[in-house]
Design a protein that fits this description.
Largest sheet: 8 strands, mixed
Number of strands: 12
Low-confidence stretches: none
Radius of gyration: 18 Å
Helix content: 25-40%
């Protein structure tokens, strides 16, 4: 499985990561959403380097130009609700992509453990397509693997899946490697942190991405 950790190279991406982590800047939910979106745009650009390209002829007012364009049929899938601004960043670049949405949440138990519940899926066919499964946080990795299985069950098997997260944990990266198809999955993280709390929140992480983007929930 191809693993890509983008902050290992110093680029403008680091500025956006710093701002979504900074508790002072997090108070501005509009800026937080926009930074998620901008990170999505940068990751979309990086992922596009892995697509198949063929030459196409474009007619200009003065002649013809040959341009290499990607052939992949793309489906951008995201987990509600925190994934929405991140998803929009990818859609800004792959504006002709199809889209899929999944409602998934943690159902906590009295002992502090939890299971991931998938309640709603909206997607078309995934057969033979390139799926971008985008979600800002990759904590335990179980949500990504479970949502992937649910999408495949409903829409069919994509040719390749790119799992894209902003902040991952080492445990989450390891889980995806062990529980998703090795040959047809690539994992992309803007940054990877070492620790998880006892409630499986990433440390230092960013906090609850959904609450920061859209307000606290009951």
């Amino acid at each position: 499985m191809e693993i890509n950790i983008l902050n290992r190279q110093n680029t403008v991406l680091n500025k956006f990561i710093a701002e979504i982590r900074d508790r002072r800047i997090q108070c501005d939910s509009m800026r937080f959403r926009r930074n998620l979106e901008r990170i999505g745009e940068l990751m979309a650009y990086e992922i596009s380097k892995r697509f198949r390209y063929t030459p196409r002829t474009v007619e200009t007012p003065l002649g013809e130009a040959e341009v290499e364009l990607y052939d992949n049929e793309i489906v951008i899938a995201t987990i509600l609700r925190a994934g929405l601004p991140f998803h929009q960043g990818f859609l800004n670049y792959f504006d002709d992509a199809q889209n899929a949405f999944v409602s998934a949440y943690r159902k906590s138990k009295k002992d502090g453990t939890f299971t991931v519940k998938v309640e709603y899926i909206s997607c078309g066919s995934l057969e033979g397509k390139t799926m971008l499964l985008v979600d800002p946080m990759l904590a335990t990795g179980s949500s990504a693997a479970l949502v992937y299985e649910a999408l495949v069950e409903k829409g069919g098997m994509p040719t390749h899946t790119h799992v894209a997260s902003i902040i991952g944990s080492e445990q989450g990266v390891d889980y995806v490697q062990r529980h998703m198809p090795h040959a047809t999955t690539s994992l992309w993280c803007a940054a990877v942190d070492e620790e998880l709390t006892s409630r499986s929140y990433i440390v230092p992480g960013i906090g609850d991405a959904g609450d920061l983007a859209y307000g606290e929930k009951l």
